[in-house]
Design brief:
heterodimer, A: mainly beta, 51% strand, B: 0% helix, 52% strand
Chain lengths: 112, 113
């Protein structure tokens, strides 16, 4: 158990709806990452937070995606106007002072 | 240049055998190379990691070999067990890039009893 929790674990939505995912790292994880993983592929980086500051965003993160980390604790990832191509596993990872990233169990999104 | 190439795509090994997975990278700015194990429906779990100042690191049955000049690294699983059956991902990160990880495409390992 990495101590990183994600909710919900599964989300089924209809195309065009908005969805929000939550990640709760352990309190010592001042660095937090979001990745997306499609079936049969490795995770792809989406965005990075150091404390509450969002320091980097991938070009995969279109303007329909927004992430926040208020107060440097939990983080949310929102997808507006979902598309079928957004169907994937969304993974959150926390990182301490070293390099190791510890992943949560992920949220599997299915867009119908 | 940001890619990490991983092979083989799938691997079948007999119980007790050695599983070997290889990765190659191009970006010389990468300075951190972890391996992750992922079971179906679960998030990736960190197995072992290496930095380019060492050529080998061993933790239990898992060993990373690193060849800086060839820009290649590999994972060896000794005495492979059926419980090792999972998908393995290599990855690379850089301190200049906030250590965001670039992952390989994964190797599905099946250890037959």
């Amino acid at each position: 158990d990495t101590g990183v929790s994600q909710n919900p674990r599964h989300k089924i939505t209809k195309r065009g709806q908005n969805v929000t995912f939550r990640c709760d790292p352990i309190s010592e994880h001042n660095r937090l990452y979001w990745y997306r993983q499609t079936l049969g592929q490795g995770p792809e980086f989406l965005t990075y937070f150091q404390n509450e500051a969002q320091l980097e965003k991938s070009r995969l993160l279109s303007d329909r995606f927004s992430a926040e980390r208020p107060k440097g604790s939990f983080s949310t990832l929102e997808i507006q106007r979902t598309e079928q191509g957004d169907s994937a596993m969304y993974l959150c990872a926390g990182r301490l002072a070293g390099n190791e990233q510890f992943f949560g169990p992920g949220t599997r999104l299915t867009v119908l | 240049q940001q890619q990490v190439k991983q092979s083989p795509q799938s691997l079948i090994v007999q119980k007790g055998g050695i599983s070997i997975i290889n990765c190659a990278y191009e970006n010389t700015a990468f300075d951190y190379f972890p391996w992750y194990q992922q079971f179906p429906g679960k998030g990736p779990a960190l197995l072992i990691a290496i930095r380019p100042d060492v050529s080998e690191k061993k933790e239990g049955r898992f060993t990373i070999s690193f060849n800086k000049s060839a820009k290649q690294f590999s994972l060896h699983i000794m005495d492979s067990q059926p419980g090792d059956s999972a998908t393995y991902f290599c990855a690379a990160g850089s301190n200049t890039g906030f250590q965001k990880l670039v992952f390989g495409t994964g190797t599905r390992l099946l250890v037959s009893p």
